[in-house]
Write a structure and sequence with these properties.
Distance between the termini: 11 Å
Number of helices: 6
CATH superfamily of the largest domain: Phenylalanyl-trna Synthetase, Chain B, domain 3
Oligomer: single chain
Shape: globular
Helix content: 10-25%
Largest sheet: 5 strands, antiparallel
CATH topology of the largest domain: Phenylalanyl-tRNA Synthetase, Chain B, domain 3
Strand order of the largest sheet: 5-4-3-6-11
Structural class: alpha+beta
CATH architecture of the largest domain: 3-Layer(bba) Sandwich
Number of strands: 22
Radius of gyration: 24 Å
CATH class of the largest domain: Alpha Beta
Length: 354
Amino acid sequence: MIISYNWLNDWVDIDLSPENLAEKMTELGTEVDEVKDLSKNIDNLSVAAVLKRTDNAFKNGSNKMLKIDTGREIVNIVTSASNVKEGDQIVWAAPGTFINGAEIKKRNFDDVESIGMAVSLKEIGLEESSEGLIVFDKYYKNGTGLKDIPLFSDSLITYEITPNRGDLLSHLGIARELAAYFEKPLKKRVPDIDLGKYRPFDLEIRSRDVESYYCASVEKIKIAESPLWLKIKLLKCGIRPLYNIIDISNYIMLDTGQPMHAFDLDKLNKKIVVRKAGNGETIETLDGQQRTLSEDTLVIADADSSVAVAGVMGGEVSKISNDTCRILFEAAVFNPVSVRRTSKRMNLPTDASF
């Protein structure tokens, strides 16, 4: 499990350095394997604004010339990325910056001098490969160093837990442990959400392996790329961002430890039934595998058939797609023994099932 030092401080004020915190966590029984300082990858990286983008200016048709304001001077840089436009703010590496051991230098492209380099999440060690540049969705003063932006200047703590401490698999879980030890209060975080008019949903529970089950529908949504802050928070913890709805679910799990699932509401027939699987019942899970379920497997179903394996993985039949406009969010607690048994029997370990 990986947690962010800055994210942890959203829950409880930590007076220790990341390294000293790691030592204290180990003393308390949560063994820390590694502390990674992300600020080491962002020396001499700063915010710059794109003043002008020129396409088709080079023999290599994929290259674009960007005129940027670095906060100190106006310079040109050359990039092949296509996700940037005039008015965007990007991350600029000045000449002399070292990225992954290589020095960034001035370069000539068809007699055009490129001063420095525009940076993607790959260059700062958060992605193995990136399709585009870092583009800010929040305004920063041009020339602001990435070390001065907490989203980037952070430390990541990798730790292990024993099987009986699943409550520590989140930032809130670790924060509770530290707050109790240091006798500090947890910070109250009340989300500012307008739930709108209440709309009941037909829900039927047929198993005692359900300890709690909540669901809520959301309409008029648009499947889209997540904001930068959300993508970076997930990447720090080793989860690849996909799109907003899935990323929100993963964010909640990392933050509070509560697994969530989202169904395409228009693919559900009439109601949700939480029950044990029928003899020989099958489901295609989100990993594309067709699975035959045993009679003690707890499933989420609609009026017709199972649509998810409870606490383990969703089903292909109700998954979110680009055309989804209505969703049903699920937040539930199932019998952990039942979930663990199902996960092992199906050879399907997931973050939600731990």
